Amino acid sequence: MDKKITIAIDGFSSTGKSTLAKQLANALGYVYVDTGAMYRAVTLFAMQNGYIAADFFDKETLIASLPFIHLQFKFNPDLGFAEMYLNETNVEKEIRTIAVSNFVSKVAEVSEVRAKLVEQQKQMGKDKGLVMDGRDIGTVVFPDAELKIFMTASAQTRAQRRYDELKEKGDDISFEEVLKNVEERDYIDTHRVDSPLVKADHAIEIDNSHLTREEQFDKVLALVNSIQ
Ligand code: DC
């Protein structure tokens, strides 16, 4: 039970990766890293500086600015998880808006952005005892992870989950808009040239369309216990 392992969780957007990753990290006393938050923070930086907008993306200037983007996770004991800081500012709320969601896949396509973030992610995982979620964790960041999970659920189910979350936060948005965003991101995430979303070798696929959070957690915890 004591041997620390690396758990890589990949999958489509809104499949509940972060919920599962947080549950596992809490139960095992592991560090949880949400790599989507890192791509979102770089996207927010690009938006704040006018490098990306509807029908406009100044990729070259974003690439030239990468050395000036400092990303950090700081654990918030009240929330029980780490929040994202962009250049020393807490951006946890801003990075979850639909505006950021609309641009993030474009930013995540840029190889120079990916190289910078992957390097930082590898550093964070060098001592193991880590649960990391994203799109390329089992394929690129930790291809040797002891446990790889690939999560799926139908686009309708995922859009409904995201819609409920955004509504609860007070976002004024339609279900159709959320579904469109989910489908567009699925397309870009699976078709990009650099590190497209694919199921990693040896990854265990979990379709959670009809699983409760508890059922899903129990299933994965049993897998962890079988290999530790
Ligand atoms: O998990 P999320 O929805 O917060 O991720 C936001 C976007 O970032 C997603 O559309 C794809 C991209 N991403 C990525 O390309 N690679 C990762 N490891 C994590 C996220």
Helix content: 40-55%
CA gyration radius, whole angstroms = 17 Å
Q: If helices are DSSP runs of H or I spanning 4 or more residues, what is the number of helices? A: 9
Let me know the largest β-sheet: 5 strands, parallel
Judged by helices, strands and strand pairing, the structural class is alpha/beta
What does this protein structure show overall?
The chain has 228 residues and is of the alpha/beta class. The protein has a single domain (6-222), classed as P-loop containing nucleotide triphosphate hydrolases (Rossmann fold, 3-Layer(aba) Sandwich). Helices cover 48% and strands 19% of the residues. Strand 6 and strand 7 form a beta hairpin. Helix 2 packs across helix 4 (98-108), helix 4 packs parallel to helix 8 (175-191) and helix 7 (155-168) crosses helix 8. The protein is globular and about 50 Å long. The mean pLDDT is 94. The structure holds 2'-deoxycytidine-5'-monophosphate. 2'-deoxycytidine-5'-monophosphate binds next to helix 2, helix 4 and helix 8.
